[in-house]
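During data preparation, we tokenized the protein backbone, and the record follows.
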Amino acid sequence: MTRIDSSPATAFDGITGKDSIGGGIPIPTLRSRTAYAPAALERDPGMPASSWRLRSDAWEYLRFAVKRLATESDTADALAADGEVHRNLRALETIELYWAGFGQRYVAAIGELLEAGDYRTALDRIGRVVNRLRHDTVPDEPRDEFLDEQERAEFTIDSDPRPRFEVLVVDETTSQDRDGLRTEALRLRGPADDFVYDYVVVPSADDAVAAVLTNPNILACVVRPGFSEHTRQKLSRDLQEAIRLARAEVVPGAAPARSSLASVQRVLGLADTLAAIRPELDLYLIAGAHIEDLAGALTRRFRRVFRREDQLELHLTLLRRVSHLYDTPFFSAIQDHARRPVGVFHALPVARGGSVVGSKWIRDLADFYGLNLLLAETSATSGGLDSLLAPTGAIKKAQDLAARAYGAKHTFFVTNGTSTANKIVHQALMAPNDVVLVDRNCHKSHHHAVMLTGARPAYLEAYPLNDFAFYGAVPIDRIKQLLLDYRAQGRLDEVRMITLTNCTFDGIVYDPERVMAECLAIKPDLVFLWDEAWFAFAAFHPVTRRRTAMAAAKRLEQQLGTSAHAAAYRAQRERLFPSGGETPGSPAADDVWLAERLIPAPDARIRVYATQSTHKTLTALRQGSMIHVYDQDWVRDAEEAFHEAYMTHTSTSPNYQILASLDIGRRQVELEGFELVQRQLDLATSLSQAIARHPLLRRTFRVLTAHDLVPAANRDAGRPMPLRDGLASMWQAWATDEFVVDPSRITIEISRTGVDGDTFKHEHLMDRYGIQVNKTSRNTVLFMTNIGTSRSAIAYLIEVLVKLAERFEEARAQEDPDVLVAEETLMPPLPDFSAFSQRYATDGVLPDGDMRAAFFRGQQRGAVEHVSPAELAERVGRGEQPVSAGFVTPYPPGFPVLVPGQVISAEVLDFMAVLDTREIHGYDARRGYRVLRPEA
């Protein structure tokens, strides 16, 4: 037997204890000092308990403890088992409150059986629950005499193949009322219904918040005004704090003008909180008197208002609304097209499999990919398939549904990656000689887009992480200072857009709301482009969502419309313009502006664009991306230009399979995105904890935390990995810190292995064990979890890391430590952007330059020479300023070290000399760097 807890702990009451989880519920702590479990059920201290698995794990532990209790002969072990049984039962009493179906009734019945000493029947009941939670077939055993009528009905329901969801009801009810509600739901269920559902009934607003934070199956909520405010459950401190944070951060909306009742305010407050946590939830109100008055006033919060007797209408509405989430108009159109017999008289011989299925030589293409892939191919836009360039039917509807899911005003599908999406947005919004503030380390597509548009980039420097050979993000004070510099030079009107990467390849996440608010306070008509190539998943979790561009734009728009914001703005303007006026030219010193957290004017314009590589973090085929728009001036100032840019960069023959995958991937995240993202974050935390706690792993590897990746000045004093401490800790950090670290990305420092990151990736992880990773630096490896990551995959990775650690430790024991230290100190500092050469700099004072002119000069054969690194270093050493003729881009991570027109510095050459990336675009190792010849 394996020890699972050997430390004193406080008594477990309901759901309490210190070891909390990302989903908001902690694992039950043990009252006794020791308890035992088989190795297969060991509670791995590196595996945090979580909402998506705590329920099933608790039932598993209960089954094992009851089995021990039934068979244990040793008195001490029997007592320990008895304590474990009662602790798990108390935990399940609260856990099951937030789930539909049989749970609460089973807990009560099992408790009675255990009290009576009928361990065999209790074990039988628990086994049935475990099988149901695993979605296994309930075993047919001769103990059916223990099944009551309701349980038999539940077993019949379990075999229903239709998709299932749960509906939260918030109201003070009796057990009889709850049973009656569920019975009525069963009565209304019909064989023609596409979906089935069951009710979760909770008595208070606190419990409602807890339920939507822990139960991802809930897709709708019915609010009855009889609910109480606070829970009577004994919840963990973490969950209590998460509930408080969730309810405190909601931007209050306007109450109905005709109502000042406190009960109405309570209902509205709960509705706003639930909508902020889970925007995909549909909210319904059950009202009594004055329903007609409430109906018109509450439509912004509630989809419909019903009377209690309208159960059939509520039932039909619930099913109809979920069918809207389930709808995939373009995927359905593709399926319909594939099934339809047609004659093909257009381009594309592969359509309908015409050139494949009859071939003697390439029939294996259909064998490998399947016939449906070929049946769905066509170059025609008729038959309901629509046109991506001018959609009016299925594609238009699919894009509108995606906009709803991601919180955008408009969404556009892109079938050739986010590189193209970035170019579309730049071309739509920028014109020659406009100034764009660009994150120096953003993806190369932004730099190429700037060159194509003729805009002048002013590069923003991210803070360097020299010890790990990659960059962080751009601090807000640097962005503000550059805007103030442009204002001081009288050129602020030239600055049109800011583009930043959120989150970075290495997981550094901005606070977009703060960045946009403070920048708009200096220039109220700025446009923002957030490259969220690696952050599409974030829209579907209540904590990560707040740092997405679309959620931040919506929240900022709401804030600007409040009277409290207007008052705060007026008060701050008096400090920023000490002369007492608003006249330009009389602002306070820059230090004052930098010290304040700036407040934008109430009439500032919210103009926000986000590009996302949907295929990188959600379900979509490769190159499937989206552009999300939240632009208050869309029709007046952007729509026509955007569509022209979209036409410029979008193929007239888009890949329909990519479009279909974007459509069905949207369905997935609306219906189960919360569960998938929570699991993704929890598994990453499990990996980091396993490495940090395993004796061998922590001697060889080190998990980089927020304390390593974010300077202290850019975060509040807090835990290095907040999710380890629970949802509330993560929530607090993501609400307050300037930068946070995406928990789904685990960066491992590998200096003690004695090999560089590229060697570790290819020779050890990929070639030896088949483990694929995206990115390494000279001494780090980045492991990413995603919504497809499994617990088995995490376990396999840990097993591989242990094997590698053993190998490296053995090799290290035979090495000369002095040589190792010398090797580890060879890495030079990361280079900043030097400057545009004098010929291409705009004014010599501010940093922007004409990159486009330098690029096209670099395309002229006589204007360019190739110079070896050694010769180039000599020239720089003599004081010359050679100028890059093109982009030099190590890949990954994909941002240029040199751009056209940039002065080549010694720092850049030193960095390139030790770079271990195998793929470097724009640099030929045989011929050297492309350098512009001096002009006569």
